[in-house]
Fold:
Amino acid sequence: MTEHRDSRRRFLFQVAVAATAVPLLGALGSTPASAAPLPKLPLSNPQAKALSYIEDATKTKSPAHKPGSTCANCQFFTAATGACTLFAGFSVAPKGWCAAWAKKAA
Ligand code: SF4
Structure:
């Protein structure tokens, strides 16, 4: 009987520890789902150069640029991470632009 109570007590203790530890790990950003921020796309990247990527769309001299088009409203952009489908492993500037810009679906 005592053994049953001890194992129940141990079980309840483990549940309490798990219930406390999981949110704490999340708050510390050490859950497996959290990832390091993506490095900024270097302007020297050959593909970035080929597509005339620029960090400030208002400064592009490309004739392909349509007024108002930026990475932020491009279908290849992921706002949460700054990632661009075309430049895997890098983040691009929301105010940036490149010649592969395509309007994000509404
Ligand atoms: Fe920006 Fe779109 Fe070009 Fe990616 S494809 S760099 S999101 S304009």
About this structure: Residues 1-35 form one domain. Confidence is low (pLDDT under 50) at residues 17-32.
